[in-house]
Amino acid sequence: MVFLYEVLRAFVVVKLTHASGKAIPSSEFAFPLFGPIFCGTIAGCGGAFLPLNKGLDPIKKNGLAPPMLSAFLGALFYHLSVNLAPENFVDVPEKAHVIVAAGFVLYSFYNHGIMSLPKSEGAAKEETIKKMK
Predict the structure, then answer these.
(1) Contact assessment for residue 40 and residue 78, using Cβ atoms and an 8 Å cutoff
(2) How many CA atoms lie within 13 A of 20 on its CB side?
(3) Gyration radius of the chain's alpha carbons
(4) What is the Cα–Cα distance from 129 to 59, expressed in whole angstroms?
(5) Residue 51 reports pLDDT greater than 70
(6) Burial grade of 103 (CB within 10 A; 0-12, 13-18, 19 or more)
(7) 17, 37, 46, 53: which has the fewest C-beta neighbours closer than 10 Å?
(8) What are the two backbone dihedrals, phi and then psi, of residue 47, each rounded to the nearest 5 degrees?
(9) Which ranges of 24-120 would DSSP assign to H, the alpha helix?
(10) Among candidate residues 52, 59, 68, 81, the one with its CA nearest the CA of residue 9
(11) Is pLDDT at 116 greater than 70 in this prediction?
(12) What is the structure's pLDDT at 3?
């Protein structure tokens, strides 16, 4: 289930980053920079700011949630890789989309402990002692 959710979230981030990149006019650079990354990030947050009366309180209280960070990094990677790729590269948007989706899935696995690194003996002993108390 985690796999499907992350792939769909990657689709939303990529779709809205790409659409806003075409809709927002460029100002200082050859392509719009901040707007599409911002739109893709907000799209991939998964409703973290809803209901709207919460505002930025969730970030103030708990810090940046993992879906927010991964959405920002995914939108940043996709937008920059599509716009800064050389002319002779083939199928850059599709390849960037696959990389973003794979990154979301791997990051979600890491956050859920599926791909966690093995603990050292000292950390394992401390955790066992804490459980016993």
Answers:
(1) yes
(2) 22
(3) 18
(4) 33
(5) no
(6) middle
(7) 53
(8) 75, 25
(9) 34-43, 57-62, 66-84, 92-111
(10) 68
(11) no
(12) 82
Q: How far is CA 22 from the centre of its chain?
A: 21
Q: Which long-range contacts (CB under 8 A, 24 or more apart) does 69-72 make?
A: 70/44, 70/103, 70/104, 70/107, 70/108, 71/9, 71/13, 71/40, 71/41, 71/42, 71/43, 71/44, 71/45, 71/46, 72/37, 72/41, 72/44
Q: Rounded distance, CA 56 to CA 101, Å?
A: 27
Domain ranges for the chain = 2-132
pTM: 0.78
Give phi and psi for 64, each to the nearest 5.
-75, 125
pLDDT (mean) for 32-39: 93
Of 63, 67, 77, the closest CA to residue 47 belongs to 67
| Token pair 């940046």 in the structure block, residue | 64
> Residues for the chain: how many in total?
133
